[in-house]
Amino acid sequence: MEQILANGLYLGAQYALIALGLTLIFSLMNVLNFAHGQMYVLGGFVTYTVVGQFGLPFIVGLVASALILALVGAGVEKFLFRPVIARSKRDESTMLLAAGIAFFLDAVILLVFGEKQRGVPKIVGGVLNWDFRIIMPYDRILIGVLAIAMIAGFILFMQYSRAGRAMRALAQDRIAAQLMGVDVERYSMLGFALGAMLAGLVGGLLVTITGINLGMGGPTSIKAFMMIMIGGAGVISGAIAGGFILGMMESVGLTLLAAYGDITYLVIFASLMIFLAIRPQGLMGKPWG
Amino acid sequence: MRSILGVTAFLLAVFVAVPWLIAVSGRWDFYYTLTSVALLSIASAGVWLTFYIGRINIGQGAYALAGGYVSAVLITKAGFGFWLTLPLAGLFCAGLSVLIGLPILRLRGVYFAMVTLVLTEVMRLTALALPVTNGAKGITSIPLPGELSVFGLVLIPDFASLENPKLAFYLMAVTLMVLCYGALYRIVHSRLGHLCRSLQQNEELAASIGVNTAWLRILAYSISSFFGGIAGASFVAISQSVYPSSFQVADSVNFMLNCFLGGLGFVFGPMLGTLVLYFGWDLLFTTGRYQLLIYSSLLIVLMLVLPNGVLSLLDRKGVRR
Amino acid sequence: MSPIIEVRGVTKRYGGLTAVNDVSFDVEKGEILSVIGPNGAGKSTLFKLISSFVRTSAGEVRFRGQRISDLAPHVVARRGVVRTFQETTIFRAMTVRENVIVAHHLRSKATLAGFFLGTRAARADEAAFGASADDIIGFLGLDAIRDEMASTLPQGHLRALGMAIGLATGPAVLLLDEPFAGMNHDETMRMVTLVRRLRDERGVTVLLVEHDMPAVMKISDRIVVINFGEKIAEGTPAEIQANEKVIEAYLGSEDAAIGM
Fold this sequence. Notes:
The complex is a heterotrimer of chains A (about 290), B (about 325) and C (about 260).
Chain A: H1 2-29, H2 36-53, H3 58-87, H4 91-113, E1 127-130, E2 134-137, H5 138-160, H6 162-172, H7 174-179, H8 184-206, H9 217-231, H10 236-256, H11 264-278
Chain B: H1 2-25, H2 29-52, H3 60-78, H4 82-104, H5 109-129, E1 148-150, E2 153-156, H6 165-189, H7 191-201, H8 203-208, H9 213-239, H10 249-262, H11 269-283, H12 291-305, H13 312-316
Antiparallel strand pairs in B: 1-2
Helix pairs in contact in B: 1-6, 2-6, 2-9, 2-10, 2-11, 3-4, 3-5, 3-9, 4-9, 6-7, 10-11
Chain C: E1 5-14, E2 17-27, E3 32-36, H1 43-50, E4 58-63, E5 66-67, H2 73-79, E6 81-83, H3 96-102, H4 112-117, H5 120-139, H6 155-168, E7 173-177, H7 185-202, E8 205-209, H8 213-219, E9 222-227, E10 230-235, H9 237-242, H10 244-252
Parallel strand pairs in C: 3-8, 3-9, 6-7, 7-8
Antiparallel strand pairs in C: 1-2, 1-4, 4-5, 9-10
């Protein structure tokens, strides 16, 4: 039981970080970032290159992932989404643009990093064994703690920094924020950069444990979508809740349902549909039309 | 009158001109390409119909996959003939979409789009997990479609006995396509279509004039999924195999893309879009490993230049839909 | 004769807030009845309760003796109680005529499958709807803009189109949501005439929610006044104008003076 909870927490922390980035972008620009999983994969490959190829310390790799993804995010917002949003009349256009970007990043990753599964050596060795109730390698614990620290850092940033407050105002009411003198373009770009950076950071964290490969992008995006549907799209607390709930469900499912084959996600999706039928706006989302 | 001429010209082109051109030029490989286009355009037609009620559907791959498996399982495990499994696959998908649609069709905009996207992935996982679908190994060596006869009258000969099954598959796919688009055209131009449009434009107002919006949404979605199911089943018949990866998220996105490229206000748009995109992708094959890069770059440029679809070109010239 | 609409103890609570509290009144067949009240009095909520776009917390609305509250909105419309919208809610990407034709949905005798197959009944329906739509368009004076796209119409025409859509469903009772909002004096007077003709020539019972006092006084057979979610008065325009409570309620609010 303790083991399941510990695994769930560890998974949930990663998931929550991914969902936070996605929900931030969604709340600021009403854009569903299909390329979020690809950004995560790209972040993983950057850390792999820095740590595995150049032999630099892990923390350098993590910082490099964060910076490069932030730049990618900012560029994608400024040169792609901004002009399309300004001229498009329907939701579909930004969705297709996002899909195009996802394909594009896939192609870039394929050309630059190849198809192989990549990983970096363990950053710390050893396994925690608490009376055989919880058995967990120290590197997982470290990554889990780092992820939770990043979530806390993100919340503090959104809560207390000037930029964070501006972005929250923007998410709540774009026009009102504009009237209040918030520089909409600048903070949209910043928000997109921040969202992409979070995805990249998780990629950098997880490359030390599960490794990374090209095929992980799409499924990661889909998990992220499920999380923000559970928690309510565009709500920060919802993304965190969704991430931890999905992590916990996955952890419980993998243990309890293992006997019936690989049906965890089937069960999760079925429950999600029933849940959405009762509460279409998700746990923390505001009711909408 | 003009429309009758147009339809006749189209039918002559696909049933007479194309086979003749292929026979003359000897490019038999085109049959496979055109068959694929015809079948994919059927699935795209379904996506287009969901667009028509104002829902962005990125889940058609799920129904294509389900349809493919239904047909494959019925043929290999229950000994059904292909021609019977084709409508059964469609009906199965329609029924499934009612169950799935009841909760999710209440969602709108990006929310609906998100759930449908997840649906494609879940269908893949289902195919991996269920015993009857044979996991990642998939179902292979599915026999070719057999004879279809009514009261001893042979309507369709056994594909395995044919000299040229490629031509037979092409004719089958094109016939299905013509039937589906004919049905879609009738739907759109009958009262049903007007009601779908009313739903697309304002659901509250539609309810206030007595339209059972929930029911109409389910109806349109199940027709859409029916199209997806028969397209999937036909595809499986051609490749004689089906795997969990036969239809993926990328396929679902492409179906949406076909509709968007061809135009959302135009019944034959998805057919046009599928043709252009499929041939475009095929042409890029020669670029080898840069294929996806060029394709996605073109897509992004297209969105930048024409964020409202190709048909928005017509709007600019002041032509009304 | 029993009233066509009976509102019985209707209540709507949102969390701790009571928007409409135990309101009861009748609407007689063939009358024009207005519900008025200061801003935020709960008129809008009451309107949505009657048209069943919102579920009641308590009480019920009956139409010809049968309960219609808490049914799906389209079912209420099918029974014959049809609402229009305050905001300019129309089918934007259709022409005026298409808007009115599609609104004939309730009157179709053929099934959707019949329409798909183009059966005789379906074709008869289509022809009848076209004729009826033209009749309604003429009735509301919209002939000149019959084939215009709805999205291009000016405000005044949109309101009339909304009414045409409501009328096309063949309602027994038409619920009008602030039909005079944002209109100048001339437009208001034209609309007053139109609503009267609706009742006189088409036999439609009209229930409207409005805060334009002069227009309400002119048009209504009877008036129901609500304030803070509760009914404070009911009667003919003359009775309402003399009612102490009503004057008090309106003096309490900022600008709307009781009219004429």
